[in-house]
Amino acid sequence: MIGKLNHVGVATPSIDESVKMYREVLGATSITDKWAMPEQGVWVCFVNLPNSQIELIEPYGESSPIHGFLAKNPKGGQHHICFEVEDIIAARDDMKARGATVLGEPRIGAHGTPVIFIHPKDMGGMLVELMETPKGDHH
Ligand code: CO
């Protein structure tokens, strides 16, 4: 049911510092500007790779859901992995039917299409994001 790997989510205490590392150490050449997603409590930017993307997320506001992650991982680290699905509602219903814990309701993610998150306890310890494939977009 899962499709392409869309991105790997990486939490960081500073997107600016992380971008510098991706650019200067790893040699990434295509990196978006960062923007705020207040409803999700994050600043976000994407490092574009030939076959995928790295999503850098930094806390936005006091109630950001990634403060806890950064408290445990002060330098940041891999936070979630995102797979594409064709239909987010069907994916949510399938996940629930198969006993996985879906966190909240579908909401609009950083690519402008609906996403859901699946609790790591049902995903081998990994927070999984499922994202509806953008129509007509293959970045
Ligand atoms: Co993501």
Keywords:
139 residues, 8 strands, binds cobalt (II) ion, alpha+beta, eight-stranded mixed beta sheet, 2,3-Dihydroxybiphenyl 1,2-Dioxygenase, domain 1, globular, 3 helices
What does this structure look like?
- By secondary structure, the chain is of the alpha+beta class.
- It has one domain (5-132): 2,3-Dihydroxybiphenyl 1,2-Dioxygenase, domain 1, CATH 3.10.180.10.
- 19% of the residues lie in helices and 36% in strands.
- The chain contains three helices and eight strands; from the N terminus they run βαβββαβαβββ.
- It has helices at 15-24, 67-72, 88-97; strands at residues 5-11, 35-37, 42-48, 53-59, 77-85, 102-108, 114-118, 128-132.
- An eight-stranded mixed β-sheet has the order 2-3-4-1-5-8-7-6.
- The longest helix is centred in the first third of the chain and has 10 residues, at 15-24.
- The radius of gyration is 15 Å and the shape is globular.
- It starts with a strand and ends in a 7-residue tail after the last strand.
- The model has no long low-confidence stretch (mean pLDDT 95).
- Bound molecules: cobalt (II) ion.
- Residues 7, 9, 55, 80, 82, 129 line the site of cobalt (II) ion (CO).
